[in-house]
Amino acid sequence: MEAVIISGPPCVGKTTLAKYLAKKFKLHLYSGGDALKKVARKLGYTKATSSDWWDTKEGMEFLRKREKDFSIDKEVDKLLIKRAKKGNVVMTSWTLPWLMKGNCIKIWLKASPKARAKRMSERDGISFSRALKIVRERDRKNKELYQKLYGIKFGEDLTPFHLVIDTENLDSRSVAKVVESFLTHYWRSKK
């Protein structure tokens, strides 16, 4: 079975969906964010363990480091491509949908900055205004980084994707059911 790659901006539901699909279809789960955090820990960012680490001062500092040292992302992306080519995996990645050719299904999740900030605020126990500031900063910095690194128009060029879902007014279960139905029909049509 080919790889399923889920992408989208922060706090849109990528990890929640990936966990559901991995369990439902008995796929391995591999997170691009976890791979980056592993590299961060090797570089001395000792707190790079929790899912909300990216939104901390240290996480934002690591993002600034990545803006200056593209080798970090390129190393992680090579590992992700190698793993995706093996198949039988669901992955979350910001860049892989543009870098990976063939033998994968690419899904983009989207929602407004306000909806994502609301989710971050609830998940991380921070104020909505703080969450919105973080979401907007991460959006801007990630767009700049991936444009410089690979020429990707992150969030604008959705041509690599087989399925695009606006999660703005959907709960995680509804999103999961839409994707489950899509994958079931997609794989059935390929038999």
Structural description of this entry:
The protein is of the alpha/beta class and 191 residues long. The chain has one domain: Rossmann fold, CATH 3.40.50.300. Helices cover 57% and strands 13% of the residues. The protein is built from eight helices and five strands. The chain has helices at residues 14-25, 32-42, 57-68, 71-86, 96-99, 113-124, 128-150, 172-189, and strands spanning 3-7, 28-31, 89-92, 104-110, 163-166. Helix 1 crosses helix 8 (172-189) and helix 6 (113-124) packs across helix 7. The radius of gyration is 16 Å and the shape is globular.
Overview in brief:
With 191 residues, this protein is of the alpha/beta class. The protein has helices at 14-25, 32-42, 57-68, 71-86, 96-99, 113-124, 128-150, 172-189; strands spanning 3-7, 28-31, 89-92, 104-110, 163-166.
